[in-house]
Design a protein that fits this description.
- One of its GO terms (molecular function) is orotate phosphoribosyltransferase activity.
- This is Orotate phosphoribosyltransferase.
- Keywords: Glycosyltransferase, Magnesium, Pyrimidine biosynthesis, Transferase.
- Its cofactor is Mg(2+).
- It catalyses: orotidine 5'-phosphate + diphosphate = orotate + 5-phospho-alpha-D-ribose 1-diphosphate.
- The protein has 209 residues and is an alpha/beta fold.
- The protein has a single domain (2-208), classed as 3-Layer(aba) Sandwich (Rossmann fold), CATH 3.40.50.
- Helices cover 39% and strands 21% of the residues.
- It has helices at residues 2-10, 43-60, 74-85, 126-137, 154-162, 173-182, 188-199, and strands at 14-16, 22-23, 29-30, 32-34, 66-70, 89-92, 105-106, 114-118, 121-122, 141-150, 167-172.
- Strands 5, 6, 7, 8, 9, 10 and 11 form a seven-stranded mixed sheet that branches. The chain has a two-stranded antiparallel sheet with strand order 1-4.
- The longest helix is centred in the first third of the chain and has 18 residues, at 43-60.
- It is globular, with a radius of gyration of 17 Å.
- The two termini are 32 Å apart.
- The structure holds 1-O-pyrophosphono-5-O-phosphono-alpha-D-ribofuranose and orotic acid.
- Orotic acid is lined by residues 24-26, 33-35, 121, 123.
Amino acid sequence: MKNIANILLNIKAVTLSPDEPYIWASGIKSPIYCDNRLILSYPEQRDEVEEALKNLIADKFKDVEYLMGTATAGIPHAAIVADKMGLPMGFVRTSKKDHGKQNKIEGKLKKGAKVVVVEDLFSTGGSSIEVALALREAGFDVLGIVSIFTYNLPKAEENFKLNDIVYYSLTNFEELIEVAHETEYIEESQIDKLLKWRKDPSDESWING
Ligand SMILES: O=P(O)(O)OC[C@H]1O[C@H](OP(=O)(O)OP(=O)(O)O)[C@H](O)[C@@H]1O
Ligand SMILES: O=C(O)c1cc(=O)[nH]c(=O)[nH]1
C-alpha cells in the first residue's frame, strides 16, 4: 500500500545512513532503518496504519480469535488493532521472565486458540517466527503473521516457507523505494545503492563504496 509507504517517509520513520551502517537485530549491517515505533507518536497516521492492519487481518484471517504482539515493537500495534477489532490480545516475550510468573507468553488464551501474530517489521523474519513457534509449541493455532513493513529479503521468504508460516505486510521495500523516488525523498544514486545492498545484505562492500 503506497499510502503506508508514504506515511513512513513523511514521519521520517525511514532513515538512511550511507556511511555508518545500522546494525539490525539479526546482525545485518544496513544503510537503511525503518523505525515503526515513531508511528505511535502521530495519531492521524497511526490510525491509518492500524485501520489498514485491522482490514488486512479481517480479510486474510477470518477465523482469528486472538492477536499476539511481538516484544517489543509489535505490542502497541497488536493492542490498538485488537481494540479496534474487539479481540483479546497478549504478547510474547523474547525470553522467559526470570522472576514473577516466569512467562514467555503473556495473556489469557483459551486452549488451541486461533492466533494472528502482530509484528512491526520483517527483516529476516527471525523474531516473529520465534514468536510463532513458541505459540505453536504451547498448543495454539497460529494462522499467520502480519507486519507493517517488510524488506522482502529472500532470507525472510525462505525462513517463513521453512516453518510453513503465512505472512502479510502492509507495505514493502519496493513500494517504499517507488514512493521515495516519486517524492524525491531519496536521491537516484542512493536508490541504486539500496537496491544493490538489498540483493545481498551479506555483501558489505557498500560500506566503503
Ligand atoms: O525480522 P527480524 O530479522 O527478526 O528483524 C525484525 C525485528 O527487529 C526489530 O526488533 P528489535 O529486536 O530491534 O527490538 P524491539 O522490537 O524490542 O524494538 C523489529 O521490531 C522486529 O521485531
Ligand atoms: O532488523 C532490524 O533489527 C530492524 C530493521 C529496521 O529497519 N527497523 C527495525 O526496527 N529493526
